Amino acid sequence: MTKTYNDIEAVNRLLEEKERDLELAARIGQTLLTKNQELETKNEGLEEHLSAVVDKVNQLKHEVILKDGLLQAFTEYEGGISPSDDSLSDDSLHSSGVKSLQKKCETLEQENVKLKLETAQLSADTYELEEKESKLVNDCLQQFVEVKKDLEHYVEELAKKTEENGAQKEEITNLLGQIVDLQRKVKV
């Protein structure tokens, strides 16, 4: 009889342990999911920022081209009227303005490259987290299947033990009945 109770206690302990494992796996999965969502949000923000920077770079390039054209036209106009020291100073102003705009463009292009690299890294991190999350979910499902199989096995064992216990009780009752009959015959 105590063996049956010990089997039930062992089954209960195993079930509690598996339940704790599943709860832990679920919490880890939830944490990974939250982190994944945070990374996706950050990634989207960086992509928007990158798009804005690219637009700004294109706008600045366009402005540089327009200003360069205006400066060249102005320089040609000034040069046609009177070549003097003023035209030289205009050329140097034009040159410094173009250089400044080119430097801004280079800076924005470098920032653009940096943002692209960061976006690629975040995409890789997101993919890695999704893979880990998928593996964790699959592991949890596998553990759940194993626990279910173990539980079915223990339930089957418990049913067998209960049946054996019932048969033993019946046999004990029969033997006790025979003992009582024998004791009556001995007294008579």
TrEMBL record:
Domain HAP1 N-terminal span(s) in chain numbering: 1-187
Lineage: superkingdom: Eukaryota
Entry's Gene Ontology molecular function annotations: myosin binding
Stretches assigned to coiled coil: 1-63, 98-171
Compartments, as annotated in UniProt: Mitochondrion
GO CC annotation, single: mitochondrion
Matching SMART domains: HAP1_N (SM01424)
GO biological process terms held by the UniProt record: mitochondrion distribution; protein targeting; vesicle transport along microtubule
InterPro entries: HAP1_N (IPR006933), Intracell_Traff-Reg (IPR051946)
Keywords: Coiled coil, Mitochondrion
Alphabetized Pfam families for the sequence: HAP1_N
Database matches in PANTHER family: TRAFFICKING KINESIN-BINDING PROTEIN, TRAFFICKING KINESIN-BINDING PROTEIN MILT
Protein name in UniProt: HAP1 N-terminal domain-containing protein
Taxonomic lineage: Eukaryota, Metazoa, Spiralia, Lophotrochozoa, Mollusca
